[in-house]
Amino acid sequence: MALMPGAPRAADFTDPLGMLKDCHRRVERFLGAQMKVAACDPGCPLDTLHADGARQAAHYFQTNAPWHTSDEEDSLFPRLRASSHPRAAQGAALANALEADHVEMAPLHDVVDEAMEAWLSDGRLDADQHARLNAVLAKMHTVYTSHIAREDGELIPLAAEVLTPQDLVEMGREMRLRRGLSVAE
Fold it and tell me: Is there a domain that residue 151 lies in?
């Protein structure tokens, strides 16, 4: 049994807003996996299931999650800010708040990465590191829960209203290129 069951993507690059929501589900799953790992006895090496979960979550947050952040900060947020739609100012204000969350989360991910790597390499985690890991993961859970709720409940519906079909096509194209995929794929 996997620590993090996989889920198929519901959206593709023709639906960039749907892809953002899909990514939120992955963030929730991988953060949940990290929390399950942190619940293990820190004085012992991680079993295969939890070690694999720690590695998969670290890989996701170091590779795919930055693409998601760029999808928002480099593709979505600028379009909301540049829009002449009557609700664009609301979108821009929301984008500013969400960007602040991104900035807050970056160093927290670094703490988790360092602790998980130490646990994997040393076969144990000292009590102070373990306490800090759990505190940081609790903070991340709180921030991500609020952040994702705002994006799914406010930002994405607003973007669907404010952005033009051409904006969405261009976003999908940028998202493909950001992942090293050709536009024709």
Answer: yes
Backbone angles phi, psi at 124, to 5 degrees: -165, 165
CA distances from 85 to 81, 89, 92, 114 (A): 10, 8, 11, 44
Of 109, 95, 104, the C-alpha closest to 60 is 109
Which CATH number fits the domain that encloses residue 101? 1.20.120.520
- Domain limits for position 50: 16-38+45-178
Q: How many residues does the chain have?
A: 185
pTM of the shown model: 0.91
**Helical pair 16-38 and 165-178, crossing angle rounded to 10 deg:** 50
d(CA 45, CA 75): 42
For the stretch 59-90, pLDDT in tens is 999 999 999 999 999 999 999 999 999 999 99
Residue with tokens 């994405």: 156
